[in-house]
Amino acid sequence: MKKHRKYSFHSRKQQGWGLNLYRNKDEGYIAGVCSGLAEHFDVDNWIVRLIFIAGLIFLNNLALFAYVAAWILLAERDENSETTYEYDEVRHRSAPKKMFKYSDDSSIRLKRASDRLKKAVSRVENMERYVTSRKFKLDKEFADI
User: Fold this and answer.
1) Tens digit of pLDDT for each residue in 48-93?
2) Could you list the residue range(s) of the whole structural domain that residue 113 is in?
3) b/e sequence 74-94, b meaning 16+ C-beta within 10 Å
4) Which residue, among 94, 95, 81, 96, has the nearest Cα to 16 in the 3D structure?
5) What Å distances lie between residue 131 and 4, 74, 126, 136, 139, CA to CA?
6) What's the domain count of the chain?
7) Of 40, 96, 121, 125, which is most buried by a Cβ count within 10 Å?
8) Which domain-ending residue is among 56, 74, 96?
């Protein structure tokens, strides 16, 4: 009996290669490759199919070989398929991990966090200035009347 290592071909394939790459046979016509790629790249199925047909016309059999290779390399999405998520700092939410979407460099993320911190400190300073001012005391006296 052959043991599978943690990162064997079969286990990586079943995990969508860590990039949420699966075939989607529910919406696909032949093997679900085009609809799986469309789901991964967040585009309509017909766009990927059109690109494949254009590949057949202009690249001859290369597109067909690429389709068969994707059929072999991509596992079918099922109810047990886990979706890998990563945090999107721009939108402030987690999103499914995509193939060509890389997070920013750590220096850029650190600068962005530093800028947000400076803005927050500035707002707190403005609030402190207002709370300790005479205008706040006067506004409070009018509010109590």
Assistant:
1) 888 888 988 888 888 888 888 888 878 777 666 566 666 666 667 7
2) 106-144
3) bbbbeeeeeeeeeeeeeeeee
4) 81
5) 65, 61, 9, 6, 10
6) 2
7) 40
8) 96
